[in-house]
Amino acid sequence: MSSPASSARPSVLFVCVHNAGRSQMAAAFLTHLGQDKVEVRSAGSAPADAVNPAAVEAMAEVGIDISAQTPKVLTVEAVQASDVVITMGCGDSCPVFPGKRYLDWKLDDPAGQGLEAVRPIRDQIEDRVRRLLDELTA
């Protein structure tokens, strides 16, 4: 059986500390926009108990429902199975493996922020995901 990283579809892992805001929004955008062209996962180095309600609301405003998502713990296996690993403020807690492409997206943390503060973060994430998708499917 082949590993996901060697499949025809590129695989992307989004990682942030709590897997409750930024990485959840990014994964949802890539899943929505990629329409099965990309394998998508997200995880956190110290996952929260639930997805940030402001992130859920911000995504609902653009027609994407992430209310059923749950924060997942970052595993070595998830990194190994991914072609591209995008970190969002997880610092040194993200394992690094040779042969993987790493990107670090500097984005404000939506934790504890209201909807007004989360909207621009959501929009930055959507823009970056669209550019990434163009690269991966070119």
Explain how this protein is built.
This protein is an alpha/beta fold and 138 residues long. It has helices spanning 22-34, 53-61, 76-80, 115-136, and strands spanning 11-16, 39-44, 84-87, 101-104. It has a 4-stranded parallel beta sheet with strand order 2-1-3-4, covered by helices on one side. Helix 1 crosses helix 4 and helix 2 crosses helix 4. The longest helix has 22 residues, at 115-136. It is globular and about 40 Å long. The chain starts with 10 loop residues before the first strand and ends with a helix.
> What is the topology, as strand order, of the major beta sheet?
2-1-3-4
- What is the typical, i.e. mean, pLDDT? 90
Question: How does the overall form come out from the CA principal axes?
Answer: globular
List how many beta strands DSSP finds. 4
Q: What are the segments in which pLDDT stays under 50 over at least 5 consecutive residues? A: 1-6
Fraction of residues in H or I helices:
25-40%
Distance between the termini: 27 Å
Which band does the percent of strand residues land in?
Answer: 5-15%
What is the CA-based Rg, rounded? 14 Å
**Helical region count?**
4
Q: Main sheet, how many strands, which sense, barrel?
A: 4 strands, parallel
What structural category do the secondary elements indicate? Answer: alpha/beta
Compressed to H and E, one letter per element, the order equals EHEHHEEH
